[in-house]
Design a protein that fits this description.
- The complex is a heterodimer of chains A (488) and B (104).
- Chain A has 16 helices and eleven strands.
- The radius of gyration of chain A is 21 Å and the shape is globular.
- Chain B has a two-stranded antiparallel sheet.
- Chain B is flat.
- In chain B, a hairpin with a 2-residue loop joins strand 1 and strand 2.
- Chain B contains three helices and two strands, in the order H-H-H-E-E.
- Classes of the chains: A alpha/beta (488), B mainly alpha (104).
- Chains A and B meet through helix 10, helix 11, helix 12, helix 13 and helix 15 of A and helix 1 and helix 2 of B.
């Protein structure tokens, strides 16, 4: 039998439908591939035995004609989604051996559709990072290794590395400032953050609630549509969940973009951006034109303020969300001299440096005397940023931009320089602040043979157009490169 | 906007870091106060540029998408999960959390 791990999700599902192979065979192939790839450190927890049992149950369902949309597909789950009875860490020590007694709504949807779960994927601690280097479970290594080990991006670094290395057919991820799209760009995979409110946040460990949104990382645009269609949907348990139907996203991936107006925001050309990224962006514009789209220059004048606004809003929300980790109800407790000392020592031992830094920034910008100057100002700037997009939608239907200002960089290179690290998200964070859907599509290799992605940003709830434009981009780019399997 | 009372010119000092750490319920060793002040000042100084944006008459964003806050019936939908809830407690006894004494 040919190597089943090389299949796309779409082809794997079709192969099982036709009876070419079973979920047990497909899952076994992926478990073997995962075991060979331990050098990538993509997983925090593996659940291979359960996966094989789930695969067996899946084959039985299929035999009875009860196959769901992800029936029998071995997938990975970012370790930010609570999974019933399976340790959930958020990449942090503070949760100890936390085993959720419940399942997140997103993974509940996927399990109902027949997902086989291979395990829980590594991530930056509490999803705070752009390189997976803040995880307390060690760095994830990008499968695209050169002479030195490279970061896979973050925070969904484990998800991106696992999909790029063909050890999971697809994976869940989350995106607060770029944490799906940036790692997708760094690993030659596809990642979509849908409109805020499409995927339920219930059972996803909270970072910044007004920005957090789940989505998939996948091998192809169509695979990402198949996964998102399972993940998304109304959930009364999340008060920001949107009660709207999914589009026909899988079909949209093949829709013509003839006549579609693609906006090119002039502010997304930034100082110090490698010329290769500008060249790729120009190439992307040509591809869109060739596919029949109309190219429209647009202006998003408040773009440069997006990251500073994000670094007020996100830490502020995080400082509040992370107040629950007090060592009383779950996780590890470090005893102190009194109750307050116990809280302080528990949190100092359980949270890593980046998480502590963000909690303190958040506490500071929310504290008496500074709230108006920092937090309120940031929320007003956020309104301006959202307005920029609304203005742009008067002349275009979607935007084309680079996903990241650089190719993947070496592990350790930026870890001690927070602001340089934060700049990774300069092109992605705007979509979070405005709640818009954005997708990264692998478009080319740079001079060093490393993947670069292009991003499509769409109107709220217009994933159909986003998938159509991404499908056209994928077709034109014809990105077929794969990393060498140095880890086997 | 009125300029923040602190910023790159004045900056947070060790004493402010001590106060923030206390509010954040984070234990910080004495010798870490100054390095942390430097780190926070680096980030806060960079954030200062937001002050350039004209936000006259702009409402602060309160929701990323246009939607009404949903209401539901005031009815019990879940419960009776004491043992599930306590299963992850660092310490519990006879159906209760065991916590440090908080009232002397």
């Amino acid at each position: 039998m040919s190597d089943l791990t090389k299949l796309t999700l779409e082809d794997a599902l079709e192969g099982m439908t036709k009876g070419d192979f079973s979920s047990v065979e497909l899952t076994r192939a992926h478990v073997d591939a995962c075991m060979e790839a331990s050098d990538l450190n993509a997983f925090v927890t593996t659940t291979f035995e359960q996966a094989l049992n789930q695969a067996k149950a899946s084959d039985e369902r299929r035999a009875k004609g009860e196959a769901g949309s992800l029936e029998g597909a071995p997938l990975g789950v970012k370790d930010l989604f609570c999974t019933e009875g399976v340790k959930t860490t958020a990449g942090s020590q503070i949760l100890g051996d936390f085993k959720p007694p419940y399942e997140s709504s997103v993974t509940t949807n996927m399990k109902a559709d027949g997902m086989v779960m291979l395990g829980k994927l590594n991530l930056d601690e509490f999803a705070m990072g752009s390189s997976n280097e803040t995880s307390s479970y060690g760095n994830v290594v990008n499968p695209w290794k050169k002479d030195v080990e490279l970061v896979p991006g973050g925070s969904s670094g484990g998800s991106a590395a696992a999909v790029a290395a063909d050890i999971c057919l697809g994976a869940t991820a989350t995106d607060t400032g770029g944490s799906i799209r940036q790692p997708a760009s760094f690993t030659g995979t596809v990642g979509i953050k849908p409109t805020y409110g499409r995927c339920s946040r219930w059972g996803v460990v909270a970072f910044a609630s007004s920005l957090d949104q789940a989505g998939p990382i996948a091998k192809t645009v169509k695979d990402s549509a198949i996964l998102l269609d399972s993940m998304a949907g109304y959930d009364p348990k999340d008060s920001t969940s949107l009660n709207v139907d999914n589009g026909d996203w899988v079909a949209s991936c093949e829709k013509s973009i003839k006549g579609l107006r693609i906006g090119i925001p002039k502010e997304y050309t930034v100082d110090g951006m490698p010329s290769e990224i500008q060249t790729l962006w120009d190439q992307g514009i040509e591809w869109m034109k060739d596919a029949g789209a109309e190219i429209v220059p647009v202006s998003l004048p408040h773009t440069k303020y997006a990251l500073p606004a994000y670094y007020i809003v996100a830490p502020a929300e995080a400082s509040s969300n992370l107040a629950r980790y007090d060592g009383m109800r779950y996780g590890t407790r470090v005893d102190g001299e009194n109750l307050n000392d116990t809280y302080e020592r528990t949190r100092a031992a359980g949270f890593g440096p980046e998480v502590q830094r963000r909690i303190m920034i958040g506490t500071y910008v929310l504290s008496a005397g500074y709230y108006d100057a920092y937090y309120l100002q940031a929320q007003k700037v956020r309104t301006r940023i959202a307005q920029d997009f609304k203005n742009a939608w008067e002349t275009c239907d979607a935007l084309l931009t680079p996903t990241c200002p650089s190719a993947p960089f070496a592990i350790g290179r930026k870890v001690n320089d927070p602001i340089t690290m934060y700049l990774n998200d300069i092109f992605t964070v705007t979509a979070n602040l405005a709640g818009l859907p954005g997708i990264s599509v692998p478009a080319a290799l740079d001079g060093d043979g490393l993947p670069l992605g292009l991003q499509i940003i769409g109107k709220a709830l217009d994933e159909d157009t986003v998938f159509a434009a991404a499908g056209a981009l994928e077709k034109a780019a014809n990105f077929t490169a794969k990393p060498n399997k140095w880890w086997v | 906007m009125s300029k923040p009372e602190t910023g790159p010119e004045t900056g947070v000092d060790a004493e402010t870091v001590r106060k923030i750490a206390r509010l954040s319920r984070l234990h910080v060793e004495e010798e870490r106060l100054v390095p942390l002040a430097d780190e926070l000042n680096g980030i806060l100084g960079w954030i200062e540029q937001l002050g350039e944006v004209d936000v006259a008459g702009v409402e602060p964003m309160t929701s990323a998408v246009d939607m009404k806050a949903p209401l539901r019936a005031d009815a019990i939908t879940d419960g009776n999960k004491r043992d599930d809830v306590l299963a992850n407690a660092p310490r519990s006894d006879s159906g209760f959390y065991v916590v440090p004494r908080s009232v002397e």
